[in-house]
Each structure stands twice: as C-alpha cells, then as structure tokens.
C-alpha cells in the first residue's frame, strides 16, 4: 500500500506565492519565517509524515484503540510515534515562546499540520485538541494555571481535551448539566458526564488536561450560566510533579465508522467523590472561552478536509496509473492500458485534484490573514484581516469537509470494485472523512454562523469587501491573454455575480424571514466556498502564467493553469444553480407538515 507523499511543490507555491509568506515574515514576531526556513521545516515534516505516521495509518485503523478498566491503550506504534513527534518539537511549532514554543506563524504551521492529517488523521487529532486547549488557557487562564500546565502541554509531555457535549445536550450547549461545586479553597468539585471526547484517555503521555464546561450552583440557565474548568487526569504538585489520580475517568469509548485509532471517550467526572477542577477566567464566561478552542478547532477540521482529499486523490491517482484495464478509447485493437488513459477516470481525478487545490488555497490565504489579524502593527489592518478570517473560517470548515467526503467517495469510484475492498485503503479515507462534517459543529451550524453572525449582523459589509477583491481579480484576468484566461474570467464572473445575488438575498431575508434564510444556508456556504476557491485558483493561475511569461519552464506552472481551467468549467459552473436554490428554494423546504414526511 502506497504511503503518503506530501505535495511539497504545491504547498510551497500556495504558502509563498499565493498566501504571501514574505509579507507575513514582515510582521512583528514573524521575522524568522523566511522561505528558506519554511522549505526546511516542510521538508522535515514531510519525512516524518511519510516515514513515521503514514505507515501507522492502516494498521492503526485495523487494530483501533482499546478500552479496559477505565483506561485506553493505543494501537501498536502510536506511543513511540508520539514520543518522537514531541521530541522533534512538532508540538511546539506554533506555540508561544514564553512557554517553550517556537512561535512560528499560522501560515507556516498550517501546511505542516496538513501533512499530519493526510498521513494519519487519527493520530493528528491528539495534538490538534491540545493546541486548542493551549490557546484557551493562553487567553483566559490565570498566571498560575498557565505556569502549571502550559510548558508541558507545549512540549507534548501532556495533552489536552475539550469537554463540551453531554448525552442530553448534543450541540445545544445551553442544556449542559455538569456541575461544579466551590470548595472554599479556590478549587471546585466537578460532577457529570461528557461524551464524544476525542483522546479523552490514552497511554501516550503521563497526564491529560481536560477543559470542562460546567455550571456553578447559582449559575443562570442557558449559555450564560456555563463556566470553564481545568480538570487534570492526575493532580499536579507544587513542584510540577504528578500527584494523586483525579476523579476523572474514561468509562467507555465509541465504536465508530472511521478514525478507529482515535479514542472517542465517554468521560465520567466525580463518580467517586468529585473531580478536582480549577476555574478558567471568570464565572459564567466558559462558553466564550471555549469558543477560543472551537474557532481554532474549526479551522483545523477544515484542514482535515483538505488533507483527506489530498490523501484520497494520491491513492486514486497512483491506482489509476497502475491498474491495467480496457483499451484506449478510439484505438481499435490496441493494447490494454492503465485506466488513467480513460477520459472519465481523468475527469474524476481532475475533479479531485482541482477541488483539493482550491480548498488548500483558500485555507492558506485565511491562515495568512489570521497571522495579520494577530500581529499587524496597524489596528485597521488587524481588524480587516480578522473580519475576513471570521467570515471564511466557517467556509473553510464546512465546504472543505463536505467536499472531502465527495472527493474520497470519488476516490473509491476510481478504484472500481477494489475501492470497496478495505485492503486498497480507499475506503478508509471515506470513512475517516465522514466525521469531519460533524466535528466542531455540523455543516448547518457553520452555515448558520456564516449567514447570521458573520453576515446579517454586520449587514454584509465584509462579504461586500471580499466581493470587491474578487472584482479586482476579474480585472487582472481581463488583461491576461489566451483562451484559457478568457474562459476562467467568464466562469468566475458568473460565480461572483451568483454569490453577490445570494449574499444580498441573505442579508435582506435574514431579518424578515429567518427560516427561509436558514433553509438556504448550507447551499449558500457551498456557493461561497466554490466561488472563493475559484477566486484563489484564478489568482494562482495568474501567478503561474506570469512565471511562464518570464521564461520559467517548470511544468508545475502550466499544470496550475490547466487545473484552474478545469475548476472553472466543472466546479464554478455550479454557482448559478446554487444561487437559484438559495433565492427561490425555501418554499419547498418548509412547505410540508411534519406528518407528511
């Protein structure tokens, strides 16, 4: 079974030439993020992904995480791989230097994280959740909590989790019933059960730091009455050593469709007298703090979509080059050929490739905007970039994950009957991808966030600004020569017009008929992703053509233009239909009574 090979040339192009690594390196604190350093880091990360993580992907899926006696044992090789991962400094890449991190910008850590997810999705979830916990503690934790927990979380000696969901709550966090009782000494006793806790328990590290949503005795009802607590698996002594076992146990793990090597735990807090916890920040602001984790996690899950799409594409491409079946269309009596010669197989592969490249391009550009929002010296620039990132994060998350499922399914189709057989590996990518559209808020939750908090609340101001940037790209396309660019421009122009129409409808309708707006929210998210992805692909094609015109013979650039043209013809052409379903389709959604379904 072929191992994952990081698409370094593509990653370097998007990071450096499209997303603007050079501009990010000019931001305060990012001066060391040069192209040479980026290339060196990506090269080392690709080796670790291919040689250490990828070989464990299949075996880990087959063996799975095991639970017994309130403890989880990871599949063979995972503990050793994690120890190497931490020792090599990968856990600290983007973390605050004050606590032992390397402080590198998000535009540089994003392709590295993509590699982990492509190579071994189940493994990558552990450091991903830890990073989210670190960010929440950095923003809201007391100095004491930061000093006690962050250095060992940053170093990878300890891992972190986020404990939100409960059996009665699902995505409705207002229904959280886990309670925290103050003990009068600054500590709390936490009682309750949490479900779907990724890496809630495992044997790769000595301690796990749980961030837990719970209610204080006098808390108001609803989301305004939720607080956030640190609940460690093992208590931490004053000198930093581990103390007694806390009353926080994994009482079972879920049996899932995919990501079998990632333990999804049911966590019980306080069954034996109370789990000791520490308040993070202020009382009743827990959901606000948890959203720090969730926003980071939503972008990271979007990158899971990109990563799994890439892995599925690589496997399908390699199989298509090796599988001999049938003769070439139009060649009578010719020899049997590899199926990559067949037009429909090529169409499927180009569909997988072009969408993956569009998703990656959009995500990396958003990552660069997140760096500027955090570090740019000009307040107005920080605000502008933050608004863009806020608008696009639900798109990166929702669109990329939904398309990864479709792309992985297409990968199975390329394999034919063998794709349905587990041993080829194609099915695993589809199974693993399926959870990504549910993680950290379903696609509908992302879409409702997009049309509500990110658009209607501000009257569509940021979306109008983004559409203005797309118009600027259309102007540059008009100046480009050749049929390829004429077609790309025409398709993108139609897509921008469709997105403009749908955006204006959403802003106008959200206040007057919110159900109609919500009925079209997921198609609107998909439309936004398709057009925003096409915009980035068009920018990439312009950059590539400029390189070609300058005498660069690297075939990568010619392929980028061709891939963009395919995206324009096969993906951007969906925009008009989606806009129509958004503007005119709400009546069909709401027309039937519940008893008619």
TrEMBL record:
Annotated EC: 1.3.99.41
Name the record gives this protein: 3-methylmercaptopropionyl-CoA dehydrogenase
Gene name of the encoded protein: dmdC
UniProt keyword Hydrolase present: no
GO molecular function, one term: flavin adenine dinucleotide binding
Originating organism: Oryzomicrobium terrae
Signal peptide coordinates: none
Segments forming a coiled coil: none
Keywords from the UniProt entry: FAD, Flavoprotein, Oxidoreductase
EC class name: oxidoreductase
Catalytic reaction(s) noted: 3-(methylsulfanyl)propanoyl-CoA + oxidized [electron-transfer flavoprotein] + H(+) = 3-(methylsulfanyl)acryloyl-CoA + reduced [electron-transfer flavoprotein]
Ranges where the Acyl-CoA dehydrogenase/oxidase N-terminal domain occurs: 39-157
InterPro entries reported for this sequence: Acyl-CoA_dh-like_C_dom, Acyl-CoA_Oxase/DH_mid-dom, Acyl-CoA_Oxase/DH_mid-dom_sf, AcylCo_DH-like_C, AcylCo_DH/oxidase_C, AcylCoA_DH/ox_N, AcylCoA_DH/ox_N_sf, AcylCoA_DH/oxidase_NM_dom_sf
Family: Belongs to the acyl-CoA dehydrogenase family.
Residue ranges annotated for the Acyl-CoA dehydrogenase/oxidase C-terminal domain, each copy included: 284-450
Domain of life where this protein originates: Bacteria
Functional summary from the UniProt entry: Involved in the assimilation of dimethylsulphoniopropionate (DMSP), an important compound in the fixation of carbon in marine phytoplankton, by mediating the conversion of 3-(methylthio)propanoyl-CoA (MMPA-CoA) to 3-(methylthio)acryloyl-CoA (MTA-CoA).
Cofactor field: FAD
